[in-house]
Structures are given as structure tokens and as C-alpha cells.
Design brief:
Blueprint: H1 2-13, H2 33-36, H3 39-47, H4 51-56, E1 77-80, H5 88-102, E2 109-113, H6 121-133, E3 138-142, H7 152-161, E4 168-169, E5 180-184, E6 187-188, E7 204-208, H8 214-222, E8 229-233, E9 240-243, E10 252-256, E11 263-266, E12 273-278, E13 283-286, E14 294-299, H9 308-312, E15 323-327, H10 328-339, E16 353-357, H11 363-375, E17 383-387, H12 395-398, E18 418-422, H13 428-440, E19 446-450, H14 467-476, E20 486-490
Parallel strand pairs: 1-2, 2-3, 3-5, 4-6, 5-7, 7-8, 8-10, 9-11, 10-12, 11-13, 12-14, 14-15, 15-16, 16-17, 17-18, 18-19, 19-20
Helix pairs in contact: 10-11
Region (Disordered): 1-29
InterPro entries: At1g61320/At1g61330-like, F-box-like_dom_sf, LRR_At1g61320_AtMIF1, LRR_dom_sf
Domain At1g61320/AtMIF1 LRR: 171-482
Length: 504
């Protein structure tokens, strides 16, 4: 009876025409009997599905595209964030009143962005209990110490300075339907076993600026048997990331800007994506490296005690790799090991896309790029992206004749169809690399060159507004192995050609 009453109430409230709730039949052609069903029946079908499957019904037709958002009579997507004109007490009162009037109807997505004082932590816990009672599926909790509207550099600085004062929260959450969880900006009580209350349904876990120990992280992962994706960003207390065998279904691991992390160990056997950005790791081990299809490795600084062999050793097992991004340090390690005839990373048979993140473009860096293609052949490579440094000075001028040069690769670009060089300034080594790629790629279709916007910082003779014309002339004179290759020179980096790892 309660179900019938709810359906009648919703049907009455839907009397106003809504394009996303149309009762019209499908367009000419085959009869779409699902779309012809009344709204009440279609919404009832969606109410029986988990959130992610309800969203996927949008692919059936345009009539279904946003229908899942109306599957509950009450709002199922709720966003709570502070308003500058409201006091904390007023916001708490409004939220409590809204929840009281709403009742315990199910919630699909709940986002809470809040900066509470210590005395207001009980309010947060009360909202957590309400969300759990409504079987929330996607929960985002941000208790950052500074407003999200603050610019990135100021926000990072103030959060780091106030880390010791961050709120400590015993995250006791019992939603049986929770599949996605994002936590940000507080201390997670390490001794509290609360993760056991919700973890058996959790599939995606994002930890941003969370202060927790390595033992706490491991305890969380042990109790998340269906976890598929783990993202850890700017967790500055974390010293190592250990993924136990218990994380059977983990396929995606991302670790970004965790300053103290020096060790990563993954015992899970199903990892497909590994993305790391931070200080050079002392040790890392991936049990199922042969299954990896997507790898991003970038380090902004070297650690003298680290063995170069340890840094690139897992690269030798990446037989299934399809997308790879590596930094200048990784290229240097590969070139050094290859020169000593050490084996273990000789071939990437299935690599389709490669991105090179160059901190510098001196003679040694150009040699490292050549060394990579010499020691790590990529016979199926189709897309090559080169992120060039933004420095206005040409390092090849200062270091000319000081570094022994590696010879350009003799081949290996037969399948290359797209090359994009971002931050191209026409420096000697940049132009040489462009020439080699054009001359060696017989099936190249697009050669995209993105100059720095506004040519800022250029001090050459071409910096008087004619730099783009000068670059265009120089590039047009380079010999091309592919007659159909088009050279695209622009100052605007459009989304037409973007690497998979354009955002990590």
C-alpha cells in the first residue's frame, strides 16, 4: 500500500510537462516498448536498480537519459555547501530542517562541503547517520580548513600549515549501499574500526588531504573486498602504500603528491592502472605488473640513495601495457641501464600511446629519448605526446658538446599516426626531435605543435611577433616520410588531441 501511495503521489506531482519524463512513443522505426511504458512504471523499474545501473539506462534512448534522477519522490542528489551570508548555526538549522521534512527516502548522491569548528563535529556525525539511514550510494565529505574557492597555491599552503589542527573524526558509517566514497580534509582516527561498517559494498575510494597512517590504510583495504579504484592525493602523513592480497578486485591505483610516501607495494593480482606522481620512490613492487595496461610515473626530484635499477625494474614486465607516461628521470634511468646492457625492459609489444614529461630538454634529455626508443621498442605505437619544459632559455646552447650524443633511432615508428609537442619554442633540440619524428614516421597523419601562449619569455630575434611565422617556416622545411602528414601549429591547446593522462 505504501508503494502504491508513493507512486500516486509522484504521478500527481508530475502533472507539469517535463521533457525528460515524456509519455510519447519512440521515433519511427522499431517499437521501443520500454520507452512506451508510463513514467510511473519506468521509475519503478529504475528504483529497483543500483545507482550505477540506473544511470546506464540513459543509453537506451533520449527518453531515458536523465530519468534516473527522478526515480525517488524526494531529491536524491543533495549538495550541502556553506553560503557566505549564512552563519554556521543558520546553515545547520536549515540542513536539519530539510532532512526532517525529507524523511528517510533513499539518497543517490550526497556532497557535504563544510568547515566546522570542533563544537560542530556532532552536527557532522548527525548528518552522517542520516545519510546512512537513507542508504546513500555516492558520498563526498570535505571538511577542509579553507574554502574551496581559494586558489590552489594558497589552499595548499594554509592546509599544510594547519595540518596539526585538522579535525579528528571517527568515521562511523553504516550505509549498506555505499559504492563511492570521497573523504577530504580531516584526521581519520586510526584506531577506530568503523570502516568495517560500510566497506563490504565500497567500490571506489578517494582520499584527499586525509591524515592517516600506513597501518590505517592497510586496515581499510583489508575490509574492502570489492574495491575497484583507490585514489590517494596529498595525504602528507602517509609513508607507504601497501595493497594486500585481500583487495582482490582492485584494478586502479593512483598516488599523487604524498610527500612522505617512499614505498608502494601491491600484492593484488588484478591491477590494470597504476598512476604515481611524487618524490622518487625508494622501493615499489607490483605483483601483477604483467597485467598493467595504463601506467603514469612522474617524479620531480631524485633521491641519491635510490638504485636506478629499482626505479625502472617493473617496466620489464609490462607486456600488456597500452598507455604509458614517463618523466625525464625515468627516461634517464632507462638510458643508463640500457647503456650497461642490462636487460629486463626491452619491449613494449602492445603500447599504443606514449607521453614524455620533460623537465628539461638539454642534449642529455634528447639522448635519453633516443635511448628509450632504442632499448624499449614500441612496434604498435600510434600516438606520441611530448610535454616540453616552459623555460624560455635554450639549454642546448649552454650544454653544447658537453654530453655524448645518442644516435637517433633507426626505426620503430611505422604505426605512428599522431605526434603532439606541447610548449614548442623552436629550440635546437626540440627542432631536432621534430625532424627525426617527421622523417621516421611513414604513416604519420597529424603533427601538432603547440607554442607557449603569447610566446611569453621569448628573447630571440623572432620574439617581435613573428615567432609563429618563423616556427611555421622552419617546420615546413623539415623532410616528411609521410606525404599525408599535416603540420598543425597553434598557440591554443584544444581538446582535439589530448593524451589519456592529460589529467591525473
Amino acid at each position: 500500500m505504501e508503494s502504491k501511495r508513493r507512486r500516486k503521489e509522484f504521478h500527481a506531482s508530475s502533472s507539469t510537462p517535463d521533457p525528460s519524463l515524456s509519455l510519447s512513443s519512440s521515433s519511427a522505426g522499431d517499437v521501443d516498448r520500454l520507452t512506451q511504458l508510463p513514467d510511473v512504471l519506468r521509475l519503478y523499474i529504475l528504483s529497483l536498480l543500483p545507482l550505477k545501473f540506473a544511470i546506464r539506462t540513459g543509453t537506451l534512448s533520449s527518453e531515458w537519459r536523465r530519468l534516473w534522477m527522478y526515480r525517488w519522490p524526494q531529491p536524491s542528489i543533495i549538495n550541502i555547501s556553506p553560503v557566505p551570508s549564512l552563519l554556521h548555526s543558520e546553515l545547520v538549522s536549515l540542513v536539519d530542517d530539510f532532512f526532517r521534512r525529507r524523511g528517510c527516502a533513499r539518497i543517490d548522491c550526497l556532497h557535504i562541503t563544510y568547515s566546522p569548528s570542533t563544537l560542530q563535529i556532532p552536527d557532522i556525525k548527525r548528518w552522517l547517520n542520516y545519510a546512512a539511514s537513507c542508504s546513500v550510494s555516492d558520498f563526498y565529505l570535505d571538511l577542509s580548513l579553507t574554502p574551496s574557492s581559494t586558489n590552489t597555491s594558497r589552499r595548499r599552503g594554509s592546509r599544510a600549515a594547519a595540518a596539526a589542527a585538522a579535525h579528528i573524526l571517527n568515521f562511523n558509517f553504516r550505509s549498506p549501499s555505499l559504492t563511492r566514497l570521497t573523504l577530504r580534509g580531516f584526521h581519520l582516527a586510526s584506531s577506530h574500526p568503523s570502516f568495517r561498517m560500510f566497506s563490504y559494498s565500497l567500490e571506489i575510494l578517494n582520499l584527499w588531504e586525509i591524515y592517516l597512517s600506513s597501518a590505517s590504510l592497510r586496515r581499510i583495504l583489508v575490509t574492502c573486498p570489492v574495491l575497484r579504484s583507490l585514489s590517494i592525493r596529498r595525504c602528507h602523513d602517509l609513508k607507504k602504500v601497501v595493497v594486500p592480497v585481500a583487495a582482490l578486485r582492485l584494478t586502479r591505483l593512483t598516488v599523487v603528491d604524498c610527500k612522505k610516501v617512499s614505498e608502494i607495494s601491491v600484492s593484488a593480482l588484478g591491477l590494470r592502472s597504476f598512476r604515481f606522481s611524487g618524490a622518487l620512490l625508494k622501493t615499489y613492487h607490483i605483483q601483477s605488473a604483467a597485467m598493467l595496461e595504463d601506467v603514469f610515473i612522474s617524479s620531480g626530484m631524485a633521491v641519491p640513495a635510490v638504485s636506478l635499477g629499482d626505479w625502472v625494474k617493473p617496466l620489464g614486465e609490462l607486456a600488456s601495457l597500452k598507455v604509458l607516461s614517463v618523466c625525464s628521470i625515468t627516461l634517464e634511468c632507462i638510458a643508463a641501464l640500457g647503456a650497461r646492457a642490462e636487460v629486463g625492459f626491452r619491449l613494449f609489444p602492445n603500447l599504443v600511446e606514449l607521453q614524455l614529461l620533460m623537465a628539461m630538454m638539454a642534449d642529455s634529455n634528447l639522448s635519453d629519448i633516443y635511448g628509450f626508443f632504442k632499448y624499449c621498442p614500441c612496434p604498435r605505437l600510434e600516438k606520441l605526446f611530448v610535454e616540453l619544459p616552459m623555460s624560455a632559455c635554450d639549454p642546448s646552447v649552454a650544454m653544447y658538446l658537453q654530453v655524448p650524443r645518442e644516435e637517433p633511432p633507426k626505426g620503430g615508428f611505422s604505426n605512428l599516426k599522431l605526434v603532439k609537442m606541447n610548449g614548442f619554442k623552436g629550440h635546437l633540440n626540440e627542432m631536432e626531435l621534430a625532424g627525426v619524428l617527421l622523417m621516421k614516421s611513414g604513416n604519420l597523419e597529424h603533427f601538432a605543435v603547440v607554442a607557449p601562449w603569447g610566446n611569453s619569455g621569448e628573447k630571440s630575434e623572432s620574439s617581435s611577433g613573428n615567432l609563429m611565422q618563423c616556427l611555421s617556416t622552419q617546420l615546413s622545411l623539415l623532410p616528411k616520410a609521410s606525404a599525408k602528414a599535416s603540420i598543425i601549429l597553434t598557440e591554443n591547446d584544444t581538446s582535439k588531441f589530448r593524451p589519456v593522462h592529460s589529467a591525473v
